[in-house]
């Protein structure tokens, strides 16, 4: 007589092998994306640009032909981005001389501060630290130069991804709905309805997340820029732009950007100003977590903060900074697709036989 397998173990085994198959499929997908990550990043950037500029292009298309409206919208967006970069470059160039002097004086102030209570560091310790840093730079000069050269090679990949994103956004903005309809027509008849529901839910969530995160990042950048300006911290505009970019990594990006601002404030203005900037990390975090995200993001992305944190860390481990940026919208889109398909099946499951 064959031994009886407990029902719970039979059910667990049935679910386990399915989970293993799904996990293997997901791993294969991410392995392929990792192999061609420039294409994935470029298409992702194209979708981001489309989510931001498609509504503007639709408005312009009311008075201009569709193709011309897309061109005007994209050129205006590029002009805005280049204008911001020019403003940052001008700010850095205008403050470069003063910044070097303030940093030199700030380092001297920090050394004198460390020599006083409660730290009481001996001056020889700081002098030894200076010599060690100089020795490290001189002994690793070739390695640093090779890193710079490899970084220049990576810049080529970045430019290629940006070019692909811009090129893809042209077609997405112009006729993305027709492209999706063509894709659905290639599927079997019985699968078209589910794919259409999933695609609409995914695009609705992705668009809402993109609009929301841009609004949150812009608000954080304005708050940080105004605070740094009134505190007299140099490079307030570039640091505000850094805060804007860093805010695209939820929960982690803003504290990192403000930590950089605190280091600049410590070197340029001293410990008191740096302490105020550190306090801004707490204030901005509370505003972002308890005001901006609930008001701006909750209607588009319904994810628990723990899920967001795990997604960001997992994305960073898997694909670095790009993975940290992409992780949350991917998880949000996957959850919205699952919810939409579940809601679509519910009436059929509860209908009388």
Shape type: globular
Distance between the termini: 40 Å
- β-strand percent reads under 5%
Number of helices: 10
Radius of gyration: 26 Å
* Poorly predicted segments: none
Helix content: over 70%
**How would you classify the helix and strand content by structural class?**
mainly alpha
Instruction: Summarize the biggest pleated sheet.
Output: none
Q: Mean of residue pLDDT?
A: 80
Q: Tell me the total number of β-strands.
A: 0
Elements, N to C (H/E): HHHHHHHHHH
Descriptive notes:
The protein is an all-alpha fold and 353 residues long. Helix content is 88%, strand content 0%. It contains ten helices and no strands. α2 (37-60) packs across α3 (66-115), α5 runs antiparallel to α6 and α6 runs antiparallel to α9. The longest helix is centred in the N-terminal third of the chain and has 50 residues, at 66-115. The radius of gyration is 26 Å and the shape is globular.
Summary of the model, kept short:
With 353 residues, the protein is mainly alpha-helical. The protein has helices at 7-35, 37-60, 66-115, 123-139, 141-185, 189-231, 236-246, 253-269, 271-297, 305-350. Helix 6 runs antiparallel to helix 7 and helix 6 (189-231) packs antiparallel against helix 9 (271-297).
């Amino acid at each position: 007589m064959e031994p009886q397998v407990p029902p719970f173990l039979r059910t667990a085994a049935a679910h386990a092998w399915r989970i293993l198959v799904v996990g293997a499929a997901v791993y294969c997908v991410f392995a392929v994306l990792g192999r061609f990550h420039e294409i994935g990043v470029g298409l992702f950037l194209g979708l981001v640009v489309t989510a931001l500029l498609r509504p503007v292009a639709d408005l312009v298309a009311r008075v201009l032909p569709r193709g011309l409206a897309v061109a005007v919208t994209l050129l205006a967006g590029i002009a805005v981005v280049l204008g911001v970069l020019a403003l940052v470059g001008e700010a850095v160039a205008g403050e470069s001389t003063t910044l070097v002097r303030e940093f030199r004086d700030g380092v001297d102030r920090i050394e004198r501060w460390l020599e006083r209570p409660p730290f009481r560091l001996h001056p020889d310790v700081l002098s030894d630290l200076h010599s060690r840093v100089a020795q490290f730079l001189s002994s690793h000069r070739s390695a640093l130069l090779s890193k710079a050269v490899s970084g220049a090679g990576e810049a080529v990949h970045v430019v290629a991804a940006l070019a692909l994103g811009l090129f893809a956004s042209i077609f997405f903005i112009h006729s993305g709905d027709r492209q999706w309809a063509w894709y659905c027509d290639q599927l079997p008849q019985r699968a078209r309805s589910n794919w259409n529901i999933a695609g609409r839910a995914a695009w609705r969530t992705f668009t809402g997340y993109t609009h929301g995160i841009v609004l949150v990042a812009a608000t954080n950048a304005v708050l940080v820029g105004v605070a740094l300006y009134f505190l007299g911290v140099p490079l307030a505009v570039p640091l505000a732009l850094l805060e804007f970019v860093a805010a695209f990594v939820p929960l982690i990006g803003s504290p990192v950007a403000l930590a950089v601002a605190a280091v600049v404030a410590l070197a340029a203005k001293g410990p008191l100003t740096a302490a105020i900037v550190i306090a801004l990390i707490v204030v901005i975090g509370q505003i972002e977590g308890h005001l901006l995200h609930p008001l701006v993001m909750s209607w588009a992305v319904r994810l628990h903060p723990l899920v967001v944190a795990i997604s960001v860390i997992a994305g960073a481990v898997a694909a670095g900074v790009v993975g940290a940026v992409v992780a949350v919208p991917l998880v949000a889109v996957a959850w919205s697709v699952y919810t939409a398909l579940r809601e679509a099946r519910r009436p059929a499951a509860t209908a009388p036989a």
